[in-house]
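Why do we care about 3D structure at all? Because function follows from shape, and shape follows, mostly, from sequence. That is the central idea of this module. The next example makes it concrete: a single protein chain, its amino acid sequence, and then its structure expressed as tokens.
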Amino acid sequence: MHYAVGAPLPPPRGQASGPGASMHWTPHPGGHTPAGPTPGGQHPPASPPAPSSPPQAPAAPPPPAQQPAPAAGQGWHGPAPQQAPPTPHSTDITGHVPLPPGAPVPLPSPPTDTAAPDAGQAAVAVLLIGPAGAGKTSVARHWADTRRVPTAHISLDDVREWVRSGFADPQSGWNDRSEAQYRLARRTCGFAARNFLANGISCILDDAVFPDRPVVGLGGWKRHVGPGLLPIVLLPGLEIVLERNARRSGNRRLSDEEVARIHGRMAGWYGSGLPIIDNSQHDVATTVRVLDDVVARSIASPPNW
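And the structure:
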């Protein structure tokens, strides 16, 4: 690189740069700063000696202060920079709030008195089972909205539809890919429920679990969430299910034949020991009140499943 005029400026006082950055630059004791090398690498001739003057006793220099040794590759001889004290750990900063790990949800503790527990304040995980068109999503969302404690609604269909490219729609034919995506969605919902419960947030999940597939259905949910999950069946009459399904759109709307087939399989829950809510004549708010009562009884006497 060619400079327009003269040689580059010498480094600022107390700093070093360029090829000699590893050398320490110290002021000359006599007050003169030795000239650095010229760009060509040659040292300039020494300056002529100053005219002689009467000898004077040199002033005693002040005792040097004890300074820390400079780090390698630096020419700074001043005091070491002061570092700011570490900031104390605070849980008010986003990203620094410790979260307990999710664990299998245990069975509810037995009540300490004979009165029924308040389901509106209990920390629970509920699995709402029912056919397409039973109103599971509406009831679960309203139940989570109106509770007096933090509650999350975890929709299996919503999680399953996280898959955008390569989504396996069972309406196009039930196959290994659609089965795998359903199982993956159930496992993801189970992990979410465990984490919510571990952090003091109740949850309600909804799924069309068939009684004739206990290993994949309730067995899978029990493995993913834990034995404390409370399964409750929502099963209105067939004509109500057909009417509600007709108001659906997209891939969540099934054919009448498929709805009737699923509803017939769901009838197998009768006699299973699980609590069943027939909401054929109930609106959403009334169904939620019935659900609160069923959850309270399930906490007091968990179903054997």
